[in-house]
């Protein structure tokens, strides 16, 4: 039974020791006890030193006074000096004060009534240096040979009074130490409770958080201590997680909406075809519509897959040497036919030799998206210019695509990199322009994943200029500050003018 109780007690103590409150209480109590102990010990030693110092000063003054009197005393007046010393010894009897007059050989010429019985000649005492021996404190001075061959003066006092004072000090120290030992655990527990209370509030708040309920935040007391810093850091993380989850919900909703349109069109065409009674030409038109809608659906799905790759950081793991100038040249040539069919002048005004490390497919997607947008949003007779510049000073490449198209309003410009955003859809429909609203978002994600930036400047009815800057070195070897796509779809590492 006792062994079971012992195991239960050990288990309880181990569980108690695991709690932060108990450990803090123990450490706080130890700190208080050690601090108080050192303080009390230092106080006791200080009092003892002060008492000894005061006694030494009195003895030194007395020995100087006697030496001066001895020098001024004539041999016939030696008896009067002895009487004065005897009276002084009697007056200070309660202090145990005494005096001895010795010859140079150590023979006692005269000693006061309270002088120690034991001979003190064997006690080595330096000149004017207080020395403790047995229960006495002594000071010695050598003077020129005076009456009766006196050349050594010793003045001393018993230590009983000082020892009695120190006994009272020790008693007070012991009482104070006992009080500290009693109060230290309480003080330690109080301090630990104050510190653990904030931790408990953080734990309670964190336990209420759910993936679908991230509205609560950890309490910040405003003290600026480490717990406040922890709470602010966790709150910042919760803000980013909440924003990311909201973005994911919006992304899923927008994706479903965008996928529903081509699927509904395909379903409608199939239902019409199944209803029968159509000519071969009409069936052919329906199949063409289905192919067009399937192409739109395929494009949208591919774009969504590309965005998902940027989210899981796949682009950083697929770096390869890329002749970026060749990618740009081929993209311009690919869209030249479309531009000429709409009487749009497309030029490659500058194309420096640029070799960088990245994902060729995704970099080509960026160039194609930008040139496609420029041609798509430029009216007949307009102009599209593409420029690729090698920036030696920054070890980077800058791709600029300018057009003289319909432009983007100031209100819409700040949203152009958001998923599924389409600027002024009425104007786009007016000019027969369609799209998924993912092109610039993909460009941004790819640029950021490669450690680069993307900017967009535009004037309504005057045109748009999109600039992509990419580092020449690999973006997959090391994250660059300010270039990490920590929240896909946000303007992290990009600027929009």
TrEMBL record:
Question: Could you say which EC number(s) this protein's record lists?
Answer: 2.7.13.3
Q: Where are the membrane-spanning stretches? A: 20-43
Instruction: Determine if DNA repair is one of this entry's keywords.
Output: no
Q: Which UniProt keywords apply?
A: Kinase, Membrane, Phosphoprotein, Transferase, Transmembrane, Transmembrane helix, Two-component regulatory system
Please give the chief subcellular localization of this protein.
membrane
Query: Which is one Gene Ontology cellular component term of this protein?
Result: plasma membrane
Histidine kinase domain: residues covered: 254-474
Q: Which residue intervals make up region (Disordered)?
A: 476-497
Under Pfam families, the record lists: HAMP, HATPase_c, HisKA
Q: Cite a single GO MF annotation.
A: phosphorelay sensor kinase activity
According to UniProt, the reaction catalysed is:
ATP + protein L-histidine = ADP + protein N-phospho-L-histidine
Span of domain HAMP: 193-246
Q: Does the keyword Oxidoreductase apply?
A: no
Any idea where this protein resides? Membrane
Q: Which CDD domains match?
A: HAMP, HATPase_EvgS-ArcB-TorS-like, HisKA
The lineage's top-level taxon is Bacteria
Q: Which PANTHER family match?
A: SENSOR HISTIDINE KINASE TRCS, SENSOR HISTIDINE KINASE YKOH
Query: What is the protein name given in its UniProt record?
Result: histidine kinase
Q: Which organism is it from?
A: Maioricimonas rarisocia
Q: What lineage is on file?
A: Bacteria, Pseudomonadati, Planctomycetota, Planctomycetia, Planctomycetales
